[in-house]
Amino acid sequence: MTLKQLRYIVTVAETGNITEAAGKLFIAQPSLTASIQELEKEFGIRIFERGKKGISLTKEGEEFLGYARQVLDQTNLIEERYTGTSAGKNKFSVSSQHYSFAVEAFVELLKEYGGDKYEFHMRETQTYEIIEDVARMRSEVGILYLNSFNETVILKTLRDNNLTFEPLFTAKPHVFIGKSSPLAKKKKLTTEDLKPYPRLSYEQGSHNSFYFSEEILSTLDCDKEIVVCDRASLFNMLVGLNGYTICSGVISEELNGPGIIAKPLDVDDYMEIGYILPASSKPSAFTVSYLEILKKLCR
Questions:
Q1: What percent of the chain has pLDDT over 70?
Q2: Cβ atoms < 10 Å from Cβ of 214
Q3: pTM flag (> 0.85)
């Protein structure tokens, strides 16, 4: 086993495509394939499944990838410590529902540990894609919520993908509205208060099931529905159209500005927000640091 082979494994896992990985590594595709097969033979395991749709990690491969990343991380730290140079960029990726505290933790991680060279990915994306990203090692950690409505389906999906869920905090439902909204003067809102206004929610793509909705109470009837893909569009429409979205109520004025406020929603529900990780591999040093920052912010 060599460090070069470990880098090959990580690159193929990240791209999900041998040809693309070979291009990024500047080697011939047959050489890359032969090197991976040699490593699989050495340890008596199968790291990748090769099929018509491309290449994917086996369960053994997911575990091996976790160890490979740790070895490469430690190698970079040793080289930085004793030579003053890095073998490459520091890399880290997180996939999350649209939570400002997840972005805030990402920013703090980058400031503290990014170094001179880095490639960090912050993916605010659809719920099922968060699960898929972590399962396929495109991201090291994912952030999403559970409640009594979606818990059975989400936890089954996590088990099917060999992922675990760890809670961060439990939030009571709130409503995000613009500061100048007609609802802004109320101390607490009811679902009846919301009826005249447009409800905003995040697009969930081909997995647009209520169970994967980022907003709780998504099954409630609403005459005015607006579906968006990004947080900037949602916040602009909250202000411009007097719209609303149901959420955790946690917001960073520093990141999102003073134009959006949160009001408690008078319903018997909750959001247990937490993070997901692969069950079969240890988290990297960056993941551990990110989670420590995240927990601190959530407190």
A1: 95
A2: 21
A3: no
